[in-house]
């Protein structure tokens, strides 16, 4: 088995993160099989028996029996996967547009954890061994068929049962072929870490537990939102018993025919390379669009393999389990309160459910001079149960917060460590410059276009309440460096779309550019807002009243007009008496006077005085009269009309 030498691994690992990124690499490997629907990760804290193992290189074989991290998927290896594993540096994924792991790091990242990888798939058992601790000179590993190969007339599991025992944690005994793949990575212990030629650094049990806990926390987030095949994810810890600490399941809801996210993957499989894909797109090949809804069901309550509460065991395996029950109770309380208040959003701890609209499409390459080997595709995930803290995705989440209330997946040109993307900077040149141009084009033009289309769709279809749709609009105060350009372009696109609704009785759709927002400057005027908006609509204004953060966004980018209550009164005084109840008019003008007494300048006071002289609004015993009729400045005090108190 030929794989890249340790020197290559040393260079790769030096530039690649050593945290929980390898969990995501394992998940993307499962997705890339295009067959796997189930993914598991297991932190095995057990030490397994060492008596009945193969005698060759027995010292190192015994070392493999200690704590390890295991990954499982039900996709299974095929010939091309074994070949890819053999040539771990020149990954066959590198130019495939339909696969997530296009950078080919994948299994190589596991060498941060340990010096040797153990793989079981079908009836094959392989070991990747860059430092040749177990394999013969120049082979860098070994591979056998544990069902067909015999050892002194015995099957592998009968001859060396202890060597098979570490795989029992995920339910495989090697008595039959495995329907899927298990990759096991024994932790690099402190006592022999210095012997590693490519990573002489221990991966301690404490470090493994900490990274696993961090991944378990992230597990309740949106990591699987843009996966097409893997729909069930589980995390386990094993000490004396196998304990499930978290699970997540994606359940697609009925979508418009041909609009499912999986159709994009099926389309991309038609092309062997990204270059072929891009050439076909330039020729106008029709592409699929995405408009579907997926429900994420999450369980983060610790259970044993029989599904029953098992707190005491978890305390030994994880430091935070003491709080698990309290989190579940808090989650139940939050869900109960949410339902009682009419909200649909549920907590993200304990047992919870959330619904997401996925909205995306391919984009034109006409405005991109030198596109990198990336798929020109953008897709948003919009939470239908309330806003989220938006992240950038390249199928799987990146450590980049966008400041948007939605998640953004795109074919970003990523840095080698997959933690950042190329952006414009003073020292960016060459290929890096073209990669940065690509990302700037996606963020500055394509994302706003897709975002605007998604908000327009939600505003015009009864997918969620208007108030919840507004929660998906970005906030000025949440803008992040590099993504604030989205807001400006988004507002420009929405300015002439029917994404708002009249605040008057008609409730008609209105575009921001033709709408206006009524400013009420006092409590009294705010209490009369609904009446003022109805009257202004009758007078011809298209008044809207979206949430404050939407108003601030539209005003900041000059996409909506604001007017105050003095302007509103000017409008509504043109209405006939049948449309303007006298009692309501009196209340409005008295509230206006209250505001005038606090903050009007001389010009505003003159305008108000002129209005008040023309309108019969002062209530008297004999009816409503103008202010001049109500008060005669030259009459003696006893002769003044008695003004009724409003």
UniProtKB/TrEMBL annotation:
Q: Which UniProt keywords apply?
A: Coiled coil
> Pfam family of this protein, just one?
SACS
Stretches assigned to the Sacsin/Nov domain: 8-240
**Where do the coiled-coil regions begin and end?**
307-348
**UniProt GO MF annotations:** Hsp70 protein binding
Q: Which PANTHER family match?
A: SACSIN
Q: What is this protein called?
A: Sacsin/Nov domain-containing protein
**Lineage, opening ranks:** Eukaryota, Sar, Alveolata, Dinophyceae, Suessiales
């Amino acid at each position: 088995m030929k794989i890249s030498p340790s020197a290559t691994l040393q260079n790769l690992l030096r530039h690649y993160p050593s945290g929980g990124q390898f969990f995501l690499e394992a998940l993307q490997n499962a997705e890339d099989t295009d067959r796997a629907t189930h993914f598991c990760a297991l932190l095995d804290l057990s030490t397994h028996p060492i008596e009945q193992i193969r005698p060759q290189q027995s010292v190192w074989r015994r070392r493999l029996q200690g704590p390890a991290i295991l990954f499982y998927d039900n996709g299974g290896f095929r010939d091309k996967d074994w070949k890819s594993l053999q040539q771990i540096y020149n990954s066959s994924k590198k130019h495939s547009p339909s696969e997530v792991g296009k950078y080919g790091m994948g299994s190589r990242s596991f060498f941060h954890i340990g010096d040797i990888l153990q793989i079981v798939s079908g009836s094959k058992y392989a070991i990747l061994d860059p430092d040749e601790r177990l394999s013969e000179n120049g082979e860098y590993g070994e591979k056998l068929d544990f069902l067909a190969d015999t050892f002194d007339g015995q099957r592998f599991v009968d001859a060396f049962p202890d060597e098979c025992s570490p795989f029992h944690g995920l339910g495989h005994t090697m008595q039959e072929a495995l329907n899927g793949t298990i990759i096991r990575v024994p932790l690099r212990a402190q006592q022999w870490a210095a012997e590693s030629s490519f990573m002489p650094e221990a991966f301690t049990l404490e470090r493994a537990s900490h990274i696993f806990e961090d991944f378990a926390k992230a597990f309740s987030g949106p990591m699987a939102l843009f996966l097409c095949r893997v729909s069930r994810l589980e995390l386990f810890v094993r000490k004396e018993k196998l304990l499930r600490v978290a699970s997540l399941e994606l359940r697609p809801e009925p979508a418009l025919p041909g609009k499912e996210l999986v159709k994009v993957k099926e389309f991309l499989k038609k092309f062997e390379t990204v270059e072929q894909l891009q050439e076909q797109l330039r020729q106008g090949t029709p592409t699929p669009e995405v408009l579907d809804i997926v429900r994420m069901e999450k369980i983060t309550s610790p259970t044993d393999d029989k599904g029953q509460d098992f707190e005491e065991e978890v305390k030994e395996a994880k430091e935070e389990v003491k709080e698990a029950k309290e989190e579940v109770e808090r989650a139940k309380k939050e869900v109960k309160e949410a339902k009682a208040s009419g909200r649909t959003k549920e907590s993200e701890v304990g047992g919870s459910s959330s619904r997401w609209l996925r909205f995306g499409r391919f984009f034109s390459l006409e405005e991109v001079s030198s596109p990198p080997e990336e798929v020109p595709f953008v897709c948003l995930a919009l939470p239908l149960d309330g806003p989220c803290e938006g992240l950038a995705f390249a199928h799987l989440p990146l450590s980049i917060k966008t400041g948007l209330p939605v998640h953004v997946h795109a074919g970003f040109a990523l840095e080698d460590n997959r933690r950042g993307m190329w952006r414009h900077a003073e020292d960016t040149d060459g290929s890096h410059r073209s990669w940065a141009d690509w990302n700037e084009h996606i963020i500055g033009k394509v994302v706003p276009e897709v975002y605007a289309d998604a908000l327009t769709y939600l505003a015009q279809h009864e997918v969620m309440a208007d108030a919840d749709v507004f929660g998906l609009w970005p906030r000025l105060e949440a803008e992040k460096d590099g993504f604030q350009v989205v807001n400006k372009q988004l507002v420009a696109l929405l300015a002439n779309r029917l994404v708002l609704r009249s605040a008057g009785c008609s409730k008609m759709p209105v575009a921001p550019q033709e709408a206006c927002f009524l400013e009420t400057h006092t409590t009294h005027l705010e209490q009369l807002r609904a009446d003022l908006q109805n009257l202004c609509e009758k007078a011809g204004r298209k008044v809207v009243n979206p949430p404050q953060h939407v108003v601030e966004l539209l005003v900041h980018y000059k996409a909506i007009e604001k007017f105050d209550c003095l302007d509103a009164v000017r409008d509504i005084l043109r209405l006939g008496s049948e449309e303007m109840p006298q009692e309501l008019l009196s209340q409005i003008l008295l509230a206006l006077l209250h505001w005038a007494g606090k903050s009007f300048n001389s010009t505003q006071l003159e305008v108000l005085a002129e209005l008040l002289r023309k309108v019969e609004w002062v209530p008297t015993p004999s009816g409503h009269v103008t202010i001049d009729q109500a008060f005669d400045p030259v009459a003696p005090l006893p002769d003044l009309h008695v003004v009724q108190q409003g």
